[in-house]
């Protein structure tokens, strides 16, 4: 038997891309909020320079009575350039955000005959290069989810739907710095600290992935005000930032409305005075008596100043030796996140340590293109690889060896890369993977891989503690014992910690003496 068969993972069916996507790859896929619709976007992950190909979004309603996987998708939306990223709204099943190769952030409502709802502009204040990833995160002040976008132009921006994507609410720019590597050496990567010297040097690094640490977006435990942000870069850097939604309280500004004042409140203190003066001078020249958000951007302030975060404290995590290709936060642990890279490394990090708890190489010299954490099993996650394989790990069984390796089904090219992976949060046995040929595969997970055991959340916390202490003994019985012997007091403590992601800001990551010297 193959490892796939032994673990009980079976290939359910293959979904073919629409005709418009015949020359495209599946660049991202997700299940919608209800778990009944699988949505994929198509572009080219190997595209560079100008994009001359169209992009396509496709959606399959897998639970419709007349669903037939051999038929074309129920919904197909064309776009003028390749689509590179996708994020389904956490609570609204029909709302989907996509990012284009040209830098647009686009919002669709799949239930409308005219699905386009909003689209951002291409500008110095928005994105000018491919939008590598999108994430929804809850904003306590707005009492709604906001959309974050990271791009290879070096910006991370945050968008509110009530502003119709006409401008970002706030953002930050990534600038060159030196993160820690495995040999205590340094390597070019990125930070969000924009000092004057760095701004004038123009050393901006492209962002490739973003994740918010704390809990799942669906539960609203993950908030822009409380959840630390991790950003991956083209140079391999992993940068930890404080919660991006923390802003200063400003005195009432004459002639500034609430939205304009909110944008100014996110600007760092040293830059805020110059931005305010610039906007007000422009408003006087235009004979404007009222300054709104549109006026702020129309005045063309220095983008480096507007998106500066020079007063924030950043944490550097051990860098990959190639571009970071995926970041995924644990939905069940307030400190854990995964990273994968073009160097073929899969790493499990704790927010409190600069070095990974686990560093694995599922396949030698093979880039890991995607990563996903089970939404129902705290100890299960998976990665998709350029060799076409998908590796499923269960920390309850082993911290080093995958429990299942999903191979391309019969008729698929062995060299066809597995570009993306998505666990279903509602229909827990379903797993979807995308491929370089554009096909989408749906898999059935075994009961064991889909359903959590008693005390598994506490078992994950125990494994993380053990690995943090430097004990990397790969004994499955230890993990199982932790799961079965968790006390009620441990559970209460862990639940309290998970409900307070802000507690991580009161702790500092551990590092070696050499790392402290580098800092």
Automatic annotation (TrEMBL):
Q: Which GO terms describe its biological process?
A: intraciliary transport
In what ranges is there compositional bias, type Low complexity? 478-488, 496-513
Q: Report the Pfam families cross-referenced here.
A: WD40
Q: What is its main location?
A: cytoplasm
Tell me where the signal peptide lies.
Answer: none
Q: Where in the cell is it found?
A: Cytoplasm
Query: What GO cellular component entries does it have?
Result: ciliary plasm; cytoplasmic dynein complex
- Which Gene Ontology molecular-function terms are recorded? dynein heavy chain binding; dynein light chain binding
Read off the SMART domains from this record: WD40 (SM00320)
Name the chain's protein: Uncharacterized protein
């Amino acid at each position: 038997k193959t490892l796939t068969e032994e673990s009980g993972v079976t290939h359910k069916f293959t979904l073919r891309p629409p005709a418009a996507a015949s020359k495209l790859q599946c660049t991202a896929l997700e299940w919608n909020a209800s778990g009944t619709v699988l949505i994929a976007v198509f572009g080219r992950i190997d595209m560079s320079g100008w994009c001359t190909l169209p992009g396509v979004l496709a959606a399959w309603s897998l639970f419709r009575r007349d669903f037939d996987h051999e038929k074309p998708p129920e919904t197909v939306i064309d776009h003028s350039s390749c689509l590179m990223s996708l994020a389904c709204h956490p609570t609204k099943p029909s709302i989907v955000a996509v990012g284009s190769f040209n830098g647009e952030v686009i919002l669709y409502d799949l239930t409308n005959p005219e699905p386009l709802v909003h689209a951002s502009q291409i500008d110095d204040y928005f994105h000018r290069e491919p939008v590598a990833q999108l994430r929804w995160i809850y904003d306590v002040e707005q009492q709604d989810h906001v959309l974050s976008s990271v791009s290879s132009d070096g910006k991370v921006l945050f968008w509110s739907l009530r502003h119709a994507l006409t401008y970002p609410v706030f953002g930050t720019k990534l600038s060159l710095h030196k993160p820690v590597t495995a040999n205590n050496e340094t390597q070019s990567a990125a930070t969000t600290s924009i000092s004057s010297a760095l701004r004038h040097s123009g050393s901006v690094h492209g962002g490739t992935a973003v994740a918010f640490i704390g809990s799942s977006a669906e539960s609203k435990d993950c908030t822009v005000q409380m959840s630390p942000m991790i950003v991956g870069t083209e140079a391999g850097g992993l940068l930890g930032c404080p919660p991006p939604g923390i802003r200063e309280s400003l005195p009432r500004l004459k002639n500034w409305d609430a939205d304009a004042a909110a944008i100014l409140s996110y600007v760092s203190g040293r830059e805020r005075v110059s931005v305010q003066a610039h906007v007000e001078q422009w408003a006087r020249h235009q004979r404007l008596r009222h300054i709104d958000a549109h006026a702020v951007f129309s005045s063309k302030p220095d983008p480096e100043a507007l998106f500066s975060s020079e007063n924030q404290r950043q944490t550097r995590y051990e860098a990959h030796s190639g571009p970071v290709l995926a970041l995924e936060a644990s939905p069940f642990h307030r400190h854990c996140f995964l990273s994968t890279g073009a160097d073929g490394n899969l790493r499990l990090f704790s927010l409190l340590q600069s070095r990974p708890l686990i560093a694995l190489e599922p396949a030698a010299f093979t880039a890991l293109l995607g990563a996903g954490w089970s939404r129902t099993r705290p100890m299960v996650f998976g990665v998709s690889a350029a060799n076409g394989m998908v590796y499923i790990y269960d920390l309850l069984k082993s911290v080093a060896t995958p429990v299942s390796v999903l191979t391309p089904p019969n008729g698929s090219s062995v060299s066809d890369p597995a570009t993306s992976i998505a666990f279903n949060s509602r229909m827990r046995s379903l797993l979807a993977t995308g491929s370089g040929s554009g096909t989408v595969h749906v898999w059935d997970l075994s009961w064991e891989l889909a359903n959590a055991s008693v005390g598994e959340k506490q078992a994950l916390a125990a494994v993380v503690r053990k690995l943090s202490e430097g004990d990397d003994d790969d004994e499955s019985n230890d993990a199982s014992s932790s799961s079965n012997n968790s006390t009620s007091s441990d559970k209460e403590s862990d639940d309290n910690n998970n409900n307070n992601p802000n507690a991580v800001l009161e702790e500092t990551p551990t590092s070696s003496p050499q790392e402290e010297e580098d800092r």
